[in-house]
């Protein structure tokens, strides 16, 4: 009997060890993939930066790599990326957070079960559909408010991007809010707090780590969006932070060059890797900033 029990424990230990190695391998795949992407971007960008200096790349105010006299000012593309992403996040973060809070704290179970599949369905709509929706529906509506609004503009693209990102923010935030222990809510109710006060001052700070993760996902999704801005924002590289004007983003330029019209290995071709490297670093900066804010919030919570 003892021999059989020891054998079962041995097999259980081997099984648990195998599962641990499997999970570690899955995590390692994600890390190695990220490192591989970074290595490829750096390796392909080095020949570009041997010809173009970092100073001109970061400070030049024109982006014309396909012209006879090329200029390589990445700030032109970054201005369009940042502007469209700011408009999208101004829509997605408040709406997604409020929707998540309502579903978690105020909605009935039947209503929640009805809305969640709709959010998942909205998240599964192809981005090209959102792009044409922005161009042929949202832009004409905005032109009724601003008759001088051009047919291609960052505002309509950003608004539709925000609607597209809402399901990501709402779904992850709602899961984080529902994971907060019920004892915290009951303690706040016992002290006389209202449902809104409990949701806003107790549940949301307690779930801030998960909510911040949804914000990071929304930021990354906005910065990396391609088809909506390519269709609705135009592909005119210009240094502007005005959402009422057309502009190009980093991703739209990468798509434009990747069509095959530029000779492989040329300096103009290598600009897509330099632009992608900047986009990678920008996403990394936002992720680090979000992680810093989350850590600061946790520390603040402990102090309180």
Structure report:
- Helices cover 77% and strands 0% of the residues.
- It has two domains: 2-51; 58-303, MetI-like fold, CATH 1.10.3720.10.
- The protein contains twelve helices and no strands.
- The mean pLDDT is 86.
- It has helices spanning 2-51, 54-59, 75-105, 109-123, 127-145, 154-178, 182-190, 195-206, 208-224, 227-232, 250-257, 267-303.
- The protein is mostly helical and 304 residues long.
Strand proportion: under 5%
Structural class label: mainly alpha
Largest sheet features: none
The CATH topology of the largest domain is given as MetI-like fold
The figure for the number of domains is: 2
Computed Rg: 24 Å
Oligomer designation: single chain
Q: Between the first and last Cα atoms, what is the distance in angstroms?
A: 55 Å
Q: What is the β-strand count? A: 0
CATH homologous superfamily label of the largest domain? MetI-like
Mean pLDDT: 86
Share of helical residues: over 70%
Strand-and-helix sequence, N→C? HHHHHHHHHHHH
Tally of contiguous helical segments: 12
Low-pLDDT sequence parts: none
**Class of the largest domain, according to the CATH hierarchy?**
Mainly Alpha
Which shape, going by the Cα principal axes? globular
Please give the CATH architecture of the largest domain.
Answer: Orthogonal Bundle
